[in-house]
Sequence to fold (86 residues):
Amino acid sequence: MNSPGLLELFVIIFLIWAFLGPDKVMEGARLLGKAYREFRGYGSSIGDKEVTEKERIRASAERLGIDTAGMDTTKIKKEIVDKLSK
Fold:
């Protein structure tokens, strides 16, 4: 099975452009480019997101409704224990 040549690709692209119009074709190309960039970005950042213990402790405290502003890790742990013991 032969693949389409350069002339056939130009004819197909021209027909798509003629039927949809230049605005829709450009909008579709932008959407495809954006989707490709997002897909490529997700693939490269799979191993980059390591959550530190401090971030996990703060997230747990905030889920419990504890305001963690200005608190260090030991104070946050104490507040979590106090909240859970009640």
